[in-house]
Design a protein that fits this description.
- By secondary structure, this protein is of the alpha/beta class.
- Helix content is 26%, strand content 15%.
- The protein has 15 helices and 20 strands.
- The longest helix has 16 residues.
- It is globular.
- The structure holds 1-O-alpha-D-glucopyranosyl-D-fructose and calcium ion (CA).
């Protein structure tokens, strides 16, 4: 199989609202992104994934789209987009857009029509059902808490919303909806974009008859029961045949609920569906066993290692992995699996980056991850903007599972807002993000953690990411090497090898602040040090706190 361009790419994700404000309204925008494209090029990433920039009432910060072919007012104009796209391409950067078509905004004209009457031509663009026993049509719960159904008086029926009440699910079983979506995609591709990240694309085909599911701790059936539905791959193959296959794109499906077996279809190397998927098993590895994500973190390194190892081994040669720790939905990985202690923060950020970037797959760097940015020290629920965090907290608080104080502690660990505080450009006011009042508070630690300081310090996290990204460009063993996990049960060490022919890498990562004895296997004795996160040479047979070392043998 010849190598595809995105198999050697490293993608930079921008959450536009929090990246760079150019007009002082406290909200990031497209001209702000355009002014920072050289920074992204200098990091070494070659592709940008833009979280949604389309017209939206911002109930879910742009993941509720009211016009798929126009730009969100706060972010600028289509002319601003064209300038940004043109400059990105001139710098050798590709642009991947966020495709949010499992649902639209309830302010989209399709839904305004659909809800107006039962026989409106747009009625079947969405999923309407009669109530049952005086309540919702089934027991499905929304990802954001509460029921996944909203009663609509106008036509005395309920509509489905797996996410917020203002995000009605589109009816993909309706061929006219598929035509609308495919035409819109082609319109953007004709403008010259280079691919799509597809929001919850694994949920578009609902189970026949919309049956009740097994209720979870909140009494509702989890929304993930709709994942990988009966027509999922039929619709994606139709999308590929009618649109994607006409271009040379990076397409990544955000596949909530995807299994390894399913991923072999979504991301198979024969190009009949998508380039790759975002899976969530490694993101769920530290969930609370009963309350899931929105409860205290339950770290378990062996479980994290086992899931990543399984995805590495089972997709090798069959399908393609994405690699990520951070995005706009996840708490910052330095706070989640690293250390915020001043003496360890940068070491742990570099160790986490090494662990991820030495694997097989396309790595994604989320804005600020290349600086080692951390979670925010929230002190009150009132500071939280995120609809998902608030919805889940209110559900659990109302049921007596969580006090307000426990809720604030949970937000400091788990809220999506930890990823959405403004990008930290410098140590000045608002971290150089805005000359106005930022829509979400800037982390006070921007005086210590910021791009301006790091781009010129050779041992910074930023410069370490530059090295990692350069190595991926240069070494086939990183792109194509086969993965083997060592020490699967060790609770602190994540050690694995990559081999391609005679060449091999030994990747040793200490996920703890405990120094550990660990003897390098004989076949790596005396091997060259390809990469290390400590400034001083490694002590043989020992791994220092948060230490990462990559040994290379058999290089030609
Ligand atoms: O996220 C969908 C999804 O899978 C959620 O479970 C998400 O990963 C969650 O926040 C993790 O706990 C996508 C977008 O990435 C998210 O920002 C949107 O809120 C959501 O879809 C609805 O569009
Ligand atoms: Ca702005």
């Amino acid at each position: 199989m010849e190598e595809k361009w995105w198999q050697r790419s490293v993608v930079y994700q921008i959450y536009p609202r929090s990246f760079q404000d150019s007009n002082g309204d406290g909200i990031g925008d497209l001209p702000g992104i355009t002014s920072r494209l050289e920074y992204i090029r200098d990091l070494g990433t070659d592709t940008i994934w833009l979280s949604p920039i389309y017209k939206s009432p911002n109930d879910d910060n742009g993941y509720d789209i009211s016009d798929y072919q126009d730009i969100m007012t706060e972010f600028g104009t289509m002319a601003d987009f064209d300038v940004m796209l043109e400059k990105a391409h001139s710098l050798g950067l590709k642009i991947v857009m966020d495709l949010v078509v499992n649902h639209s905004s309830d302010e989209h004209k399709w839904f305004v029509e659909s809800r107006s009457s039962r026989d409106n031509p747009y009625r079947d663009y969405y999923i309407w059902r009669e109530g049952k026993n005086g309540g919702a049509p089934n027991n499905w719960g929304s990802c954001f808490g509460g029921s996944a159904w909203k009663y609509d008086e106008q036509t005395d029926m309920y509509f489905l919303h797996l996410f917020s009440k203002k995000q009605p699910d589109l009816n993909w079983d309706n061929p006219v909806v598929r035509d609308e979506v495919f035409n819109m995609m082609d319109w953007w591709l004709q403008k010259g974009i280079d691919g799509f990240r597809m929001d919850v694309i694994s949920l578009i085909s609902k189970p026949e008859g919309l049956p009740d599911g097994e209720p979870g701790p909140t009494g509702y059936a989890p929304f993930l029961l709709t994942a990988n539905g009966p027509h999922e791959h039929e619709y994606l193959r139709e999308m590929n045949r009618r649109v994607l296959s006409k271009y040379d794109l990076l397409t990544v499906g955000e596949c909530a609920g995807v299994t390894l077996e399913e991923a072999k279809n979504y991301a198979n190397l024969d190009g009949s569906e998508l380039s790759m998927v975002f899976q969530f098993e490694h993101m769920d590895a530290d969930f609370h066993p009963v309350y899931g994500r929105y409860a205290e973190q339950c770290k378990n390194l062996p479980r994290l290692k086992a899931t990543l190892a399984r995805w590495q081994k089972e997709l090798d040669g069959v399908a393609w992995n994405s690699l990520y720790w951070d995005n706009h939905d996840q708490p910052r990985v330095v706070s989640r699996y690293g250390s915020e202690k001043p003496e360890y923060r940068e070491l742990s950020a570099k160790m986490l980056a090494t662990c991820l970037h030495m694997m097989q797959g396309t790595p994604y760097v989320y804005q600020g991850e290349e600086l080692g940015m951390t979670n925010y020290p929230w002190t009150s629920i009132d500071q939280i903007n995120d609809i998902e965090s608030l919805g889940n907290y209110r559900d659990l608080h109302a049921r007596g599972y969580m006090s307000e104080e426990q809720g604030v502690a949970m937000m400091r660990q788990r809220s999506r807002d930890n990823a959405r505080t403004p990008m930290q450009w410098d140590d000045g006011p608002n971290a150089g993000f805005s000359s106005g009042t930022p829509w979400l508070p800037v982390n006070p630690n921007h005086t210590v953690i910021n791009a301006a300081e790091q781009v010129k310090r050779p041992d910074s996290v930023f410069c370490f990411y530059q090295k990692l990204i350069r190595l991926r460009r240069e070494l086939d063993v990183i792109v194509h090497g086969h993965f083997e996990l060592l020490e699967p049960e060790d609770p602190e060490l994540f050690i694995y090898t990559r081999t391609l022919g005679d060449e091999g890498l030994l990747v040793m990562c200490n996920f703890s602040e405990n120094a550990r004895d660990w003897a390098v296997p004989a076949d790596y004795a005396g091997a060259d040090v390809l990469l290390a996160n400590y400034p001083t040479p490694a002590e043989s047979g020992r791994l220092r706190p948060w230490e990462a070392i990559v040994l290379r043998k058999g290089a030609k």
